[in-house]
Amino acid sequence: MSEYVKESERSISARMRQALKSFGLPRLIIALFLLLMFVLTPFAGSNLVSQITNVINRFSWNAVLVLAMVPMVHSGCGLNFGLPVGIIAGLLGATCAIEWGFTGPVTFWMAILIATPFALLFGAAYGWLLNKIKGGEMMIATYVGFSVVSFFCMMWLVLPFKKGDIAWGFEGTGLRTTFPLDKYYEGVLSNFLRVQIGRLVIPTGALLFFALLAILIWAFLHTKTGTAMTAVGSNPNFARASGINVDRIRLLSVVMSTWLAAVGILVYEQGFGFVQLYNAPFNMALPAVSAILIGGASANKASITNVIIGTILFQGIVTMTPTVMNGLINLDISEVLRMVVSNGMILYALTRKTEVSR
Amino acid sequence: MNTKKSSAPKRALTFLSNSAVPLMFIIIIAICIPISGFSPTFLLNEVMTRLSRNAFLILSLLIPIMAGMGLNFGMTLGAMAAEIALIFVTDWQIWGIPGIVLAMILSIPLSVILGILCGKILNAAQGREMITSYIISFFMNGVYQLIVLYMMGSLIPILHGNIELPRGYGVRSSVDLTNIRKTLDNLLAINIAGVRIPVATLLIIALMCLIIVWFRRTKLGQDMRAVGQDMEVARDAGINVERTRLISIVISTVLAGIGMVIYLQNMGDMATYSSHSQIGMFCIAALLVGGASVDRASIGNVFLGVILFHTLFILAPSAGAKITGNEVVGEYFRVFVSYGVITVALVMYETRKRRAKARAAQQLRQEQEVEK
């Protein structure tokens, strides 16, 4: 009898160990840390509800950018370090929509519309390149992203944008590094059906928009093409043997990721309220990559749940740590912490023994 | 299997494809020189300065390439070790050549520790060393900031307040190295036709080149080349592959540390939190401009690369200003060129690798058919 109890105890502990293993130690540490931050908030002299509002808001800005990782991970193209390629398409959409005289909320939809052909074009070229270099996607994606961003640093200066709101007035050439969107699409999603209870503000529209895109992606992954995409990602040789055109599926996934990144940056801007050009897109890929990894994805597996959990955890840490740390010990090490946590998470994922043989 | 000697046009084609990047740079530079309007003496002086400043750092990249680990983006770790060493040396107010030598010596144990860490992680990430070393550099940048910005002055004693932030701990965003500025460069320096030549620095660089040439012939150097050629074959031959790879990264990190001291003594001013951030990218771009690739790099590539890359760096802003009427365009252009060169080199390497793989598969298939 006692042996039987021991046996079941062992199986429970083994099962817990198994669960812990599948959850991943770093992920657990991050989740516990965030929980600790929430618990400590009242002691740090800041309001818990407004902190939660902050996290929800930041989630609504960033979730689509993180969602842009999913198609490429599914098709085995690895983590999309080339996110800036799509971001540039989105920025082209935003700047062109404003330049061509649209004002108010309609600018947002026009920006998406204008960004789409750019995203398809860039995504196709980017996907074509990634098909040429299977196996080395992540490194090359990083540098393709950088090259595109630095190329557009020149383009923002040279392209003939004239509108005073977004271009440098005195020289008449080049776009501003940052410009506000209050006359255009600031809060176009966040303010739609906004719920306000005391200090708690929920940007319903932005959350709904993300949910819509997430459901579309989820539904797509369950169609025939979507299943083929997963097959290509998990075993390209098997996929090829069963008659799937691997290169075409991969290209499609890259185009999808790029378009999502373009939409993602526009969603980010409508929440943030500013458009940032030039060097800003350089730093946008790594947070998105580490967010989805924190959410439980790996270099070749990712789901919508990973996106949601990851974005909440990552943005939670980014928004909570500064206030809590500042309030408690008057020491703002949040920036350093963010760097260590996000890059540590990517390192952890890269060193996992996953079979990505081709 | 018959290995035919490749024909002359074929060889010429290989030469062209191998040196496409340097040739492209020579053409761009040839166009930019007259546009920029710089005098030859000015240009030569600048190129000489940059050669002595950067060559040692770039040399540190050669050994991991030999061991088949690709471009070591983790060389930044050595640069951070050197910066920590220089902070201490400045704080202890040891000036001139002794300061430089002490900084180099201090940087070595730090570099070794960081190199071992980096090597261990890279061994766990076999097959994706480059992206991993790239992320390591970001990760360690966070740790570096934690140490320098929060621990120095609070946990780690800082003697003199003038390098500390006013709040009482952490190092200022810029550390003044005036007292060791160019002391190494000025040692034995000579002037030839208005071009200043930092003989001592160049001697150290030359010595390092000789050491690398010697190292390639040692047992360890041979092992590294074997590992770089084929890890499995090397393992079968009794080489401890993991250890060999680890050592190559440690050596690279240590050399990067020493190189960073040389770099910063020439600059004479250290941006505490940003000096190291771009250094890996510029060094790698320079090496690739010199005609190196991810799996093959020589000392010649280092020098050709540093001269071509930095000539363009000097020319780009003023040439950009003359062409587009905006100096900033030129500055963005040279950043674009750096990233573009790395991208092209990576793409060329991966396509070559895939083609070789496909060829091997085809050969295997043919052999099997013959057997049938």
Structural notes for this entry:
The complex is a heterodimer of chains A (about 350) and B (about 375). Chain A has about 350 residues and is mainly α. Chain A has a single domain (about 25-350), classed as Orthogonal Bundle (ABC transporter involved in vitamin B12 uptake, BtuC). Chain A contains 14 helices and four strands. Chain A has helices at about 1-25, 25-40, 50-65, 70-75, 85-100, 105-130, 135-160, 205-220, 225-235, 235-240, 245-270, 285-295, 305-330, 335-350; strands at about 180, 195, 200, 275. In chain A, the strands form two sheets. Chain A has a two-stranded antiparallel sheet with strand order 1-4. A two-stranded antiparallel sheet of chain A has the order 2-3. In chain A, a hairpin with a 2-residue loop joins strand 2 (about 195) and strand 3. The radius of gyration of chain A is 22 Å and the shape is globular. Chain A starts with a helix and ends in a 7-residue tail after the last helix. With about 375 residues, chain B is mostly helical. Chain B has a single domain (about 20-370), classed as Orthogonal Bundle (ABC transporter involved in vitamin B12 uptake, BtuC), CATH 1.10.3470. In chain B, about 75% of the residues lie in helices and about 5% in strands. Chain B has 15 helices and four strands. In chain B, the strands form two sheets. Chain B has a two-stranded antiparallel ribbon. The interface of A and B includes residues 173 and 347 of A.
